């Protein structure tokens, strides 16, 4: 009954638009209708009955697999989408919600199989591919989502000839128009013309949409298609080096490809992506240096650049702990290309090169931007956790910047940032213990952090949620600097004038390390230490806090 009521309301709206009565309608009402239809379709349309022990018989009969009702409503919803995009192209929120409904219709194969049988779907695809009005008037974000939907639809069930025809009508025009434009002899001269810039931006948005459509069963096709574009995108970095919005969009293409595809790529394909990302960063670094020499831009101008670069590096790092590939399983029917063993670029190379760009540009003023600050500390924590052996190899000035960032995050940032920094310390201390090299810059830095973490736990008020992260950091640092830890305890005890407080502290410290004397990097000892630390904080907490 509820669905019927919404469909009747939707039909009244559709008939009003066909009668040119749009000015009498409310975009908010249109938005609410699409909001409901999208959620209903996602949940109830063509439900996979195998996933449920019991299912509503009326629902299954009306909108289940192989029912006329399912075919009818898929066609109706598709017409609703097309009508909305024609009438409401200037209403960004309504257009965006409408395209999200379209994505819902094609993201599940059973629904997509019905959608691609509709003639209106093919007309929509041709209209969008040819940049015809009014679709070319849609906002960038809506065009991106529309391309995502069109790509997802292309992986529905079709015979080989039909599928080839579909891609020829959806992706081939995009590729051909882009290549024809950038290969013009005078492209450098015409590149700043508004029409040319709009075409480049539209293509970059479409590439982001294609990347967003990635699923495990289509990643092979989409990766190959997108890789052909990435080298051309790097060339655009040179052409549009003084156009920040375009530079951001180019980097965002790489961010989306890494985000959506890296977890599915085997070693060979990962190498290709790493190489492309490294080249991108090298070009960005060169352009950024020349920009700094010629134009002292405000730090805020680099905010979006840095945020996207750090997001790219974090996405590349995610391969180390989220990997669904099976030695290029999804690419098995394609040419494997150069064997991975002959390639030299790794995730570590790209990430550390990126860190060389990011660290010198980060400042305390830029860290006042919450999203940038979070992304920065997330990145350096991942690097310390995944590649701790690379940290001592950083150039001296970058190493100092990194250590200063960790100290700043621990002492002057939010509890969330402080926790990230504490989580970064443990692998660094463990790396020092492995190397058994004293008087290295990292060894000396960890000694300094021992005092900071000790003071945080014993002398300062801190968020109790950080106790575990601080405790793990403290334990690894104590293993590394046992003499210095004993000295910190003795100094603290000797400063006490109250005999009762002295004794309470002495007993608490003795219990704290009783289960791990001498402390080693043994997991059982660490667990016992953390358990004792809870009791320690409960007994000593507030006794000595100075702030």
UniProtKB/TrEMBL annotation:
Its main location: cytoplasm. GO terms for biological process: protein export from nucleus. InterPro entries: ARM-like (IPR011989), ARM-type_fold (IPR016024), XPO1_C_dom (IPR014877), XPO4/7-like (IPR044189). It is found in: Cytoplasm; Nucleus. Keywords: Cytoplasm, Nucleus, Protein transport, Transport. The keyword DNA-binding does not apply. It comes from the Eukaryota. The keyword Protease does not apply. Residues 358-467 form the Exportin-1 C-terminal domain. GO terms for cellular component: cytoplasm; nuclear pore. GO terms for molecular function: nuclear export signal receptor activity. SUPFAM superfamilies: ARM repeat. PANTHER family: EXPORTIN 4,7-RELATED (PTHR12596), EXPORTIN-4 (PTHR12596:SF1). Belongs to the exportin family. This is Exportin-4. It comes from Mastacembelus armatus. The lineage of its organism: Eukaryota, Metazoa, Chordata, Craniata, Vertebrata.
């Amino acid at each position: 009954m509820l669905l019927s009521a919404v469909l009747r309301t939707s039909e009244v709206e559709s008939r009003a638009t066909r009668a040119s009565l749009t000015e009498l309608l409310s975009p908010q009402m249109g938005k609410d209708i699409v909001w409901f239809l999208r959620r209903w379709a996602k949940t109830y349309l063509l439900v996979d009955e195998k996933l449920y022990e019991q299912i509503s018989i009326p629902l299954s009969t009306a909108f289940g697999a192989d029912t006329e009702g399912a075919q009818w409503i898929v066609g109706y919803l598709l017409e609703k989408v097309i009508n909305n995009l024609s009438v409401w192209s200037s209403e960004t929120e309504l257009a965006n919600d409408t395209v999200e409904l379209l994505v819902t219709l094609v993201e599940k194969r059973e629904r997509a199989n019905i959608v691609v049988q509709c003639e209106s779907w093919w007309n929509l695809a041709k209209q969008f591919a040819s940049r015809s009005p009014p679709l070319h008037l849609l906002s960038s974000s809506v065009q991106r989502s529309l391309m995502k939907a069109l790509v997802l639809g292309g992986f529905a069930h079709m015979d080989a000839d039909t599928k080839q025809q579909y891609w020829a009508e959806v992706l081939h025009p995009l590729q051909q128009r882009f290549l024809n434009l950038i290969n013009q002899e005078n492209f450098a001269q015409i590149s700043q013309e508004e029409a040319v810039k709009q075409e480049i931006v539209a293509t970059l948005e479409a590439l982001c949409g294609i990347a967003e459509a990635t699923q495990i069963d289509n990643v092979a096709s989409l990766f190959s298609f997108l890789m052909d574009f990435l080298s051309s995108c790097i060339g655009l970095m040179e052409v549009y080096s003084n156009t920040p919005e375009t530079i951001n969009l180019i980097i965002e293409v790489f961010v989306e490809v890494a985000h959506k595809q890296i977890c599915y790529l085997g070693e060979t394909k990962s190498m290709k992506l790493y190489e492309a990302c490294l080249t991108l960063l090298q070009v960005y670094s060169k352009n950024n240096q020349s920009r700094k020499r010629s134009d002292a831009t405000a730090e805020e101008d680099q905010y979006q650049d840095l945020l996207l670069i750090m997001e790219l590096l974090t996405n590349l790092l995610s391969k180390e702990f989220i990997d669904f590939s099976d030695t290029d399983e999804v690419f098995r029917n394609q040419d494997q290309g150069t064997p991975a063993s002959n390639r030299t670029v790794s995730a570590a190379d790209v990430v550390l090169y990126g860190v060389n760009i990011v660290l010198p540009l980060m400042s305390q003023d830029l860290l006042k931007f919450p999203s940038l600050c979070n992304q920065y500390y997330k990145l350096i924590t991942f690097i310390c956790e995944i590649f701790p052996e690379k940290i001592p190899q950083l150039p001296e000035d970058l190493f100092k910047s990194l250590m200063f960032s960790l100290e700043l995050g621990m002492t002057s940032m939010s509890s969330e940032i402080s926790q990230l920094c504490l989580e970064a310390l443990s692998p660094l201390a463990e790396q020092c213990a492995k190397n058994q090299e004293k008087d290295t810059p990292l060894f000396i830095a960890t000694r300094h952090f021992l005092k900071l973490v000790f003071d945080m736990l014993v002398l300062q008020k801190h968020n109790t949620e950080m106790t575990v992260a601080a405790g793990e950091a403290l334990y690894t640092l104590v293993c590394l600097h046992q003499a210095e830890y004993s000295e910190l305890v003795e100094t603290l005890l000797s400063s006490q004038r109250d005999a009762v407080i002295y004794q309470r502290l002495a007993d608490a410290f003795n219990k704290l390390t009783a289960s791990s004397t001498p402390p080693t990097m043994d997991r059982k000892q660490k667990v016992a230490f953390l358990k004792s630390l809870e009791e320690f904080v409960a007994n000593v907490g507030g006794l000595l806090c100075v702030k």
